[in-house]
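Checklist before submission:
- one chain only
- standard amino acids only
- sequence pasted in full

Submission:
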Amino acid sequence: MRIGIDARFFGGEQSKGLGRYTQKLIEHLLSIDTEHTYVIFLQEEAYDDWEYKRDNVEIVKAPYPWYSLTEQLLMPLLIYKQKVNLMHFPHFNVPLLYRGPFIVTIHDLIISRFPTSRATTLGPLTYKLKQFGYNRVISHAAHRAKKIITVSDYSKKDIIDFFHIKKEMISITYEAVDGFNHADLSDEDVKKILIKNKISKPYLLYIGNAYPHKNLEVLLKMMSQLKKEGRQSFKLVFVGKEDYFYLNIQQEAWALDVDDQIIFTGFVPDNELAALYKGSFAYIFPSKYEGFGLPPLEAMYYGTPVISSNSSCLPEVLGDAALYFDFDDVSGIINQIFSLEESSRLREELIINGRKQIKRYSWRKMAKQTIKIYESVLAESKTKITS
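Returned file contents:
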């Protein structure tokens, strides 16, 4: 059978988030499965740098930007030409004109649950048009898919509730964490990288984007309250590419008079992130909504205690390996920080539990589960054809 995968998120700047999911899925599918033929649709950059040579793999150049008109009009034609038996879209952006059998991975419903103009740089009219297009595309993907894959039980329930889809239509394949290597960095190596990024200990760490649902404002309020109380023992480090959303956070930090307590590193390459994790007092994650939540697991990989909001899927994914707070409870965050500071035993327990927790997740296991989903859909299609 010929299985197509829309891998346009593979590689480049998309190597995080959706790109990482797509890349790890393909890597492990190709290492496990020699029975099916995989047709991989790639952007030009990834196509030119493709390294996974297999007899059962065909790569196809798909130079169509995500969420574009060419994606909607030309991508279906390209897929039809390849005569795939089943298509897997690892994101909700399934072209409306595509009518072949497909599986879609819907990681979360963040855009549906947080439809706010604060989450875009577009003007009001353009934003409304984009939101209309998003709603149309994700609804098409959810209702026409032969199967939906999602990444947590929380997301499964959310999709069922939002689209009124039968639970049997949705399968869960958890993502995983494998860090950025460099887990064996020496204390001296960590020190050098911290100096390079102008970071001094002790510090609390957040790595990720600054979209509104990430709720970074509550961390600014936390720093403001600590400053008012004269408890300024920690700096707060934000790591993420400087963009419109991070600029807003910087302005809010200045307005709250805590800009002297906060370090904005901007983009940090993967080979330095390990040092930032390892050097931090704790990783703090105040998000209101996640489909899975990889960064806290990455922190656990490096032996960093995690303090997280108790929202959405996070208790499901992090288990008893994190300290929790309500996402809008500033005092709750502060209490957890100081409980961790006051108890070395609690800190050690979190580190041990974190290392156990990450072992629950495996990209290879995810790929095996995905193959079973492919085969069940293909078998069902064969049954319908012969009956």
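Reviewer check: The longest helix spans residues 363-386.
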